[in-house]
Design goal:
single chain, Rossmann fold, globular, 52% helix, 5 strands, 5-stranded parallel beta sheet, alpha/beta, binds CO-5-methoxybenzimidazolylcobamide, Methyltransferase, Methionine Synthase (B12-binding Domains), Chain A, domain 1
């Protein structure tokens, strides 16, 4: 892997946001995710490569370490902050105004769930695929989803859930959307969401990753 991508991945894994951030102490005064991403883009590295080869694998390492109790919530938060600093720089490249929008994609993390890193990645990738994004954020109620659909009746809807406890809220929201808008298309995703669960709750498609969502949406308009 390219050296600068390795460094970005390292910053995300260890939560090094920028040069002035004091955390982690052993990386003091070194460039962080912010500076390295700027440099990578200046060197002509493809933003998608930064996403696929630095960000996503680094966050997977963070997640596995947390699962093994090798790191705790504060370290996870620092990684999430470093990751967001990378995303600030690469997002504009996925928002090319030259391409005509293919449609509108409403996305949000369901009620009770505050995880937004995966949702933001999906949102960014779908936006890069030519869609206009309405990002409702985290802890989104069924009513808020319904209101957004009312205002954008042709939009495709995406729901994210990261907690097994909030999968139940995902189910309630999907059922409510389908009752009111039977012709709507609803995508679901997030680490605990399976195709079996998707079928059970009456959603249209489940993707384990952003690209699956992008490919599915592309099929809808081609
Ligand atoms: Co939380 N957390 N967390 N967390 N967290 C998990 C999810 C957990 C698996 C960790 C663990 O125990 N091993 C666990 C859930 C267990 C369970 O439900 N079975 C957990 C827990 C328990 C909690 C708290 C309850 C902890 C506590 O307070 N005691 C708490 C809950 C807060 C709440 O939501 N109400 C909590 C809090 C947090 C932080 C705030 C500290 C932070 C979130 C920061 C943020 O998002 N802004 C956090 C983090 C970072 C994680 C882990 C480490 C990483 C999640 C992540 O961002 N992954 C996670 C452990 C893990 O994943 N192993 C964990 C990277 C991200 C790119 O992946 O979101 O899966 P993911 O998204 C993927 C795919 O799923 C897919 O695309 C993405 C890219 O590939 N995808 C979609 C996602 N949405 C999609 C939608 C689609 C299509 C694809 O279509 C619409």
């Amino acid at each position: 892997m390219n050296d600068i991508l390795k460094k970005i991945a390292c910053c995300v894994e260890f939560g090094k946001i920028n040069k002035t951030s004091p955390y982690p102490p052993n990386m003091k005064d070194q460039d962080g995710a912010d500076e390295l991403t700027k440099k990578a883009l200046e060197e002509g590295i493809n933003p998608n490569e930064i996403l696929e080869n630095a960000l996503i694998p680094a966050m997977a390492i963070v997640g596995n370490k947390f699962s093994r109790n090798e790191i705790y919530v504060p370290q996870m938060l620092m990684s999430a902050k470093a990751m967001k600093n990378v995303m600030i720089h690469i997002r504009p490249f996925f928002q090319s105004g030259e391409t005509k929008r293919k449609g509108t994609f409403i996305i949000g993390t369901v009620t009770g769930d505050l995880h937004d890193i995966g949702k933001n990645l999906v949102s960014m990738m779908v936006e890069g695929g030519g869609w206009e994004i309405i990002d409702l954020g985290v802890d989104v109620s069924t009513e808020k989803f319904i209101k957004a659909i009312e205002e954008n009746p042709k939009a495709v809807i995406g729901l994210s859930a990261l907690l097994t406890t909030t999968m139940e809220n995902m189910k309630k929201t999907v059922i409510a959307i389908k009752e009111k808008y039977p012709d709507s298309t609803v995508l679901v995703g997030g680490a605990p969401v399976t195709q079996e669960f998707c079928d059970k709750i009456g959603a249209d498609f489940s993707s384990p990753d952003p690209q699956g969502a992008v490919d599915y949406l592309q099929k809808l308009v081609s």
